[in-house]
TrEMBL record:
Pfam family, one: PTE
Species for this entry: Gordonia liuliyuniae
Key words, A-Z: Hydrolase, Metal-binding
Alphabetized InterPro entries for the sequence: Metal_Hydrolase, Phosphotriesterase
Family: Belongs to the metallo-dependent hydrolases superfamily. Phosphotriesterase family.
Cross-referenced PANTHER family: PHOSPHOTRIESTERASE-RELATED (PTHR10819), PHOSPHOTRIESTERASE-RELATED PROTEIN (PTHR10819:SF3)
Origin superkingdom: Bacteria
Modification type N6-carboxylysine: residues: K147
Name of the protein: Phosphotriesterase-related protein
Length: 322
């Protein structure tokens, strides 16, 4: 038996059920919220928690048992709020540790670290490992995986430092990794190279947002190196239309890569990056129910088997966390 930590405590990986591998409960810029509470979307704590409970209950009612939430520093992680939601919504929520940046690191790390003004061991590694072993911010909730990012800016010094710290924390703890990538710059391959140099087991890495690409050669190269492909932005039709996302999964499954794909939306109950109601108008299918309601039926119609669906939704997440 192998357990994975969730917001409500350890759960046997065999009981995770159907898993959406990249979803956020809340994405919030805390400083903006505290100083400009009505921009770009008004924040009401009780209303947002209640709304999240409703959305997660709807997700669970469609047969989803677990969501993997890679909300870390840079995205507004606040575990007590997630605990309040999870007390009322009967679904597994798996929390992460790491730092989300496309460029610079937080100023708290600018002067502290190897070779810096205060020459000490990498503090990010210590903090990530503490989240995993002791719990996050004084709560009993332990992070079950690590998160970093690389975008069109590429491997900036800040991005590389976070990525290497994530890799080192993985080596120390054995916890898996999810990387936000931009597949159009083939940054998944860059992430694999850097993480491998730190001794990371690439079979324990999800290369996130691979599903934004229809470049099958690139996707095969990432999967052949051992990592999972995050086909995890269903509903973000502005970045790639529904039909192309579905057809890409279908073709990769036909080529034998179902064992290297995981599914999700990268949606959130609330995200404050957009003006109120703009998200719903621009991407109406970007929610936790789109895969259950629309994507799975479309995959079935195009020949993806029940066994392959189970592999992507159940077996691969279980292996990732085992």
């Amino acid at each position: 038996m192998s357990n994975v930590e969730t917001v409500r405590g350890p759960v046997d990986t065999a009981s995770l059920g159907n898993v959406l591998m990249h979803e956020h409960v809340f994405v919030i810029g805390t400083e903006m919220q505290q100083n400009y509470p009505d921009y770009p979307s008004a924040w009401d704590e009780d209303a947002r928690v209640a709304d999240a409970v409703t959305k997660l209950r709807e997700c669970k009612a469609r047969g989803i048992d677990t969501i993997v939430d890679p909300t870390v520093i840079g995205l507004g992680r606040y575990i007590p709020r997630i605990q309040a939601v999870n007390e009322q919504a009967d679904i597994n929520i798996i929390a992460a540790t790491g730092i989300y940046t496309y460029n610079e690191i937080p100023f708290q790390f600018h002067y502290n670290g190897p070779g810096l003004l205060f020459d000490v061991a990498e503090p990010m590694v210590e903090l990530f490992v503490k989240d995993i072993r002791d719990g996050i911010a004084g709560t009993a909730v332990k992070a079950a995986f690590l998160k970093c990012a690389i975008e069109v800016q590429g491997l900036t010094p800040g991005v590389e430092r976070v990525m290497r710290a994530v890799g080192q924390a993985h080596v120390e703890t054995g916890k898996p990794i999810t990387v936000h990538t931009n597949p159009h710059t083939e940054s998944g391959l860059v992430a694999q190279r850097v993480l491998a140099a730190e001794g990371v087991d690439l079979s324990k890495v999800v290369i996130g947002h691979s599903g934004d690409s229809t470049d099958l050669d690139y996707l095969c190269r990432v999967a052949d190196a051992g990592s999972y492909l995050g086909m995890d932005r269903f509903g973000l039709d502005l970045l790639l239309p529904f039909e192309q996302r579905v057809d890409t999964v279908v073709e990769m499954a036909r080529r034998g890569y179902a064992e290297k794909m995981v599914l999700a939306h990268d949606a959130a109950c609330f995200i404050d990056w957009f003006v109120a109601d703009a998200k719903e108008q621009a991407v109406p299918n970007w929610n936790f129910n789109h895969i259950s309601d629309d994507v799975i039926p479309a995959l079935r119609e195009r020949g993806v088997t029940e066994e392959q669906l189970t592999t992507m939704l159940v077996d691969n997440p279980r292996r990732y966390f085992s």
